[in-house]
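Lecture 7, part B: from sequences to assemblies.

Below are the input chains for today's worked example.
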Amino acid sequence: MNTQPFLEDAEDLYQNAPFGYMSMREDGLIVNINGTLLDWLGYDRDEIVYQKSFQELLGMGGKIYFETHIMPLLKMQGEVSEINIELKTKESTKLPALINAMRILGRSGYQPVYRFSVLDITQRKLYELELKKAREKAEQTVQRLKQVNQELEQFAYTASHDLQAPLNTISGLMSLLEQNGHFPAGSEGAKYFFLIKSNAQRMKMMIKDLLEYSKIDGKETEFEEVSLNEVCGIALEMIENQVKENNATFIIPELPSIDGDKIQLVRLFQNLFGNAIKYRSEAEPVINVEFEDKGDQITVFVKDNGMGFEQKHAGQVFGFMKRLHTHDRIQGTGIGLSACKRILEIHGGTIGVKSEQGKGSDFYFTLPKNYEKAN
Amino acid sequence: MNNELIKRNNINISGKGVQPMVFAHGYGCDQNMWRYITPAFDRDYQIILFDHVGSGKSDQSAYDYEKYSSLKGYADDLIAICEGLNLQRVIYVGHSVSSMIGVLAAGKRPDLFENLVMIGPSPFYINDNGYFGGFTRQDIDELIETLESNYLGWSSFITPVIIGNSEKPEYSEELRNSFCNMNPEIAKHFARVTFLGDNREDLPKVSTPALIIQCHPDVIAPVQVGEYVHKQMPESRYELLDTSGHCPHLTAPEQVIHSIKMYLNN
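Predicted structure of the full complex, as structure tokens:
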């Protein structure tokens, strides 16, 4: 095999390079052009060299751009790069081109010239147009979705808020009915009354959870440095009765501080802690909080000794209003964990769970330490 | 007040003389354009260089689309600069669109200006009922398209990210330093205001003596346009240089210096 250095023929390389080359004087007159560019433009050499200026190969818009941008730059910094301009061919079609140029100091007997390299970007231009269109479309869609989302949030908030008032009235009236002994124990009326009451309670719970959920996105999140220990403390205070009634034990180590919205993070822990007690097993609830520091983010684990569930349902539990148990067995709305998921999305984190039927659940979530940096 | 003004228009003052010469750059670039001209006047004049708001290293946040929707906004800035720096008997040198900005400022406040030097002026770029401006409306649309390709083409998928990326200040620095790099939206807006504005009626209102410097051929401001400006301005002198293009202060600075000096010395 011949491995001798391959010598390029400079003139052949200039004329037939897969690239356009051209040189022009300071006044724009073209003094040399290679075969490739002539071919692209459809001209003969003697129609161009010392006959045409570079400006004459441009449309009007290009001419203005040349005079206001390209020429000043060439004069001031001696080079330009990646200028996107259309050249006019002899047939008056347009050749989208990418141009680089630099000044070559005058050799004796010659004026200084500017050497141009010209790249045919016809295909790239089409691709760019597609990208531009796609981006514009995406921006419009995002805009529309944002608006729809806002309206939905407003709707969810208003609906759940406004439903509360008549429901409170109904509950009040039912209390009166109950106090006044309208339905004697064991009567059919008492049975119906009990069903109405429990359904009204369920509805109340649902509305409360919906309202809480709609509040997550409903207001501007305020990020500040938040101590997770403080957050856990507040969350426990809020479920104090539940903790006492079940004689639950919480083991919480020293946790770090992170950037986050305090109210939302309290809600996150409150939901997870509340669930750990609600879905308890026979044993008294013991909840272990642990965490791992992974540099830019932390992972927090909330492990319980509750009833657990089959791992195949792990994806389902975070779904909006999705539940593994009927309301009759364990009361709930299926909103709590989806609220947790949403809160973590807002914080740039993720949530997951490992569980085994009868052996408890291990909920874990990640949180970036510095939200700004992570996003 | 002055500090704000100096920051807003990136004003740079130099020179050993007393009488102020204010230099205003044209569309596309910034005050760096004057680098071959100012040294020749450094000894005898006070040199004031500035960038129009939106161009060069001016305060981009001061770009008010409404204020700068006509050249009057820029003319008001020029007057504010003269007042803010207490300039008197100003010799104003404006290139291209800045010639018209000078016309508007001198029309409004003739007391501030002693002379106008207009390089490649054009009061209206579009041909209209017997008036030859050199362009059609479509030509200007084509320019906007070219600007979009260069400012808003594929590079725009990258540049806003880079500019907004505080982690990579070296990129934004480099972009900011580029003489002809403008915020794409401002570049388009300024192009529209520059190339679609009609200031023909403002020319006869100027009583300040003016020098018109014309090149040939100049595709942006052709000879006919320079002659029109000369005819419309009673106190003007017309000088045709032996050079082509639209930026003689870059391509033939010695000729520009010579004609300004000859004019001022007479």
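Note for the exam: The two ends of chain A are 55 Å apart (CA to CA). Keep this in mind when comparing with the next example.
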